[in-house]
Amino acid sequence: MTRAGKNFSFTFDSLIEAVFLAAVFFTPVIFDRRLGIVFSGTKVAWLRVFVIVLLSVWVIKLIIAKQHRFVRSPLDWPVLTFLFSTTIAALTSIHVYTSFVGFYGRFEGLSTWYLFGLMFFVVTNYIRSGEQLKRIIATVVSAATLMAVYGLIQRHELDPYLWGGVVTWQRVIGTIGQPNFLAAYVLMAFFLTLVLFLEERKVPAAAPPGWADQILPLGSFIFGQVIFIVMIYNLEAHDIFLWYSGFALVTGAALLFAYNYEKLHPFLLDALLGITLLLNYICLLYTQSRGGYIGFFAGIVLFALVAGRRWVFKNWNKVMVLGLLIIAVSAVTMLRPEFSPFERFTSEITTKKEVVAPGEVEGRLELKGAAGSRGETWKSAIKIIADYPLFGIGPEVLKMVFPRYETELFRFKEAFHVKQDRCHNETFDVPVTKGLISFFVYLWLIFTVFKTGFDKMMTVSAHQRLMLAGVLAAGFSYLIQNQFSFGVVAITSLFWVLWGMVMVAVREETSAEPQKSLQNLSWADIPWLPVSAVIVIALFPTYVSFLSFQGDVFFKSGKTHLEMGKLPEAVEDLKQSLRVFPFEGTTASHLGIAYLNQGNMEEAIKALSYGTRIDAYNADNFYMLTKIFLSFYDRRVDAKNPLEEAMRNAEIVVKMDPYYAEAYETLGMISERRGDVAGAEQMYEKAFSVNPNLPVTIYKIEELSRRLGQAGKAREIFGAAASKFPENIEVFKALERLKAK
């Protein structure tokens, strides 16, 4: 029998570390433009794959080695308790399916929280030394540099892609897809990179590194950045093989750098890390994230306190050069106010003048834009917590509930028909979606992370203290930033990795766990049946995890065809999307719209009715059904009680969303057709109070008020609106017409 002569324990541990590092790099940088949700949809699908591989290798190791010493940490019970309470919140959710898988756009349901938990436990069990921690940081350095370089490309209007939602030359989005999320990532990367930048490095006198030794680490770092730039300028969305092959090369280059960066000459490594730090800061500046900037300064303070004066003064020259460059970049950038985060601070804080008495005007502060809407969102959050105190409404379902708790001012601060899916504040998001029990567990968890770090701060070596400073500052800056934003897969996954790094950084370095002797194990001795079973079982969740991914590819194609007016192609793609993944309400809604544009009312009703079953809280589907049945009544189409069906669906709409102005307008139309003029006028008034910009509503209030002999009442309504919304020209026109007659 031939002996393999391999130490399988070492092989598996090394493989797990390599796959883990690949996940840390790949998750934030990957995106696929074929998808409707280009960024998070791609990232969560591939993170699932990486975690499945990690778990499979771990299980196979257990089968072969027949033992595993689970490494304990002070954070184990808080993490497990938080995941357990989140599980209860998902099971008691108002929509269990969505809370488990996540809703379209974010994908942070319970299954994703389990991924974060497994990432944490991989760190605490397989990252055993300071060198391994540094490899994680080096991997993050490569990812953050790639994003920062792409951010520079976007800022200077050189991006080959036209991204929707954000004007990227004003606020860059990198490979994460949103300025605040990008800011959160580069914040964490900045403080982690400081660890490598400030640590002591000496050139070995006996064998100083030659230039040949620099080629692999430096070349791999530059190669990854160059390949990415070449890809975005030369590959189309449907060059699938080349696209993913390119990302495989970029990931391989990042891992080569992580395993070999220490071979670089200290001066060369310092220069490289200094450049990446500066790029990260520039990228942060270009996001114009106010929360990110607050997090940056908070992280700097904590880093200095934990690291201590020794590291600052010992590296005064590097700190001074980096600081001067940051100041210079900030000054040059902020010469143009439109690119300054401080301008975004001040632009949304204004003084509003109000007449409190004849001849007496009083000014008060008013928050506008995002600042104002978030304040209103937090008011809604308090109401939701009061109604769902224990386990919340469930992960990922805020969008379904928010319209019923929306404040009177929210739609005027944000926009009409905006249904918040997050509270834009971590302190509110956790209790709203997971309940106060999970919130207190989360506080216990965060407290344990920082308490563990601070408890060890005074007793560990200077080297470990620097590591602690970087990891704690990275986590702290993220928490501060998230008081004005929220987490997504690309950044929350790294945040949970940071927790594990704190646990590893403050414990004694441990060697690989003691194993039964495997040195003489032959390949024939491997239990291939259970190993094969693990591999086969792992293929199933991998396949399932890509169903929503593939469905979204067809959805994006169908939506594009719909926007181009290619209706037959749109219908076929959207139907195929539902065949692949039949649980996505957004797809059903678009299929209904495609049929409506074709004039195929029967199929539109089927598609929209199906949408109401799988996405029961989407008021838009019910509203479209309302309009269809109302049109049936007007056109005398042979249908069973079309006016009653229209009324039933419209009432469902306003029950779900009390601020759906168009539904009230339609209820007014239905009341008119029933001969109830007074009831119709009331519905139009309600629609106008919700949204004073609807032309039909304004006209109907004017018309019906005359028929009811209540023109004076209409003048009062329009007069109040005119003083509140002086930019609304249609209201002034209606007032003039009423006065003229």
Automatic annotation (TrEMBL):
Q: Tell me which GO cellular component terms the UniProt record holds.
A: membrane
Domain O-antigen ligase-related intervals: 276-443
Classification via InterPro entries = O-antigen_ligase-rel_domated, TPR-like_helical_dom_sf, TPR_rpt, WaaL-like
Please give the chief subcellular localization of this protein.
Answer: membrane
Membrane-topology annotation of the record: Multi-pass membrane protein
Q: Where are the transmembrane segments?
A: 12-31, 46-65, 77-98, 110-127, 136-153, 181-198, 218-235, 241-260, 267-287, 293-312, 319-335, 432-450, 486-506, 527-549
Q: Which GO terms describe its molecular function?
A: ligase activity
Subcellular location per UniProt equals:
Membrane
Q: Where are the TPR repeats?
A: 551-584, 585-618, 661-694
* Record keywords, A-Z: Ligase, Membrane, TPR repeat, Transmembrane, Transmembrane helix
Does Transmembrane appear among the keywords?
yes
Keyword Transmembrane set for record: yes
This chain's protein is named: O-antigen ligase family protein
| Upper classification of the organism | Bacteria, Bacillati, Saganbacteria
